[in-house]
Amino acid sequence: MFETLKTQSQMRPGEQLLMMVHRHWIVFAFKIGYLLILIITTTIILSMKWWLITLFGSAIFWGGLSIYWMFFLTFVLLSWINDELDLFLITDQRIIGIEQISALSRRVTECGLNRVQEVNAEVTWILQTIFHYGHVHIHTASEHSDMIVSYAPDPVENGNRINTIINEYRSSHSSTKNSTF
Hints:
single chain, 181 residues, alpha+beta, four-stranded antiparallel beta sheet, three-stranded antiparallel beta sheet, 6 helices, 7 strands, 54% helix
């Protein structure tokens, strides 16, 4: 439901959503890796508990461990929010990039399909090849609005789909321009 509200708020009247690109699930696996690091470091700290309590005292030990958990979990939560709220919408008229920069900062970039110059897919590492994720670069006629869809699932396929949508847009709009002259 939240995703529907997010997309509807970005749509113009009469505009149709053709494609939506989220981050690949591997990004969230990285967050689980962070949580594993938290558990491993906590286990190490707890194995030295009696020595640390003798050195710092019980209150400082448990308070420090609690603060460590709070900061670490806050970092994981904010990192997850930044990745979860990133979304790229491709409509029949434009491409909209919604990127969460930080907890309170969001960048919305949009580009008409007629302004897109090229769409490239990039898969560079073995992990990206195995799990089918990478980057999709959307180069536009504007010097400041190139869009990069990082951690895109199936970047080659998504890049081809975006190119197909752009080509269909151009062919439908070039035929209407030619018929009016």
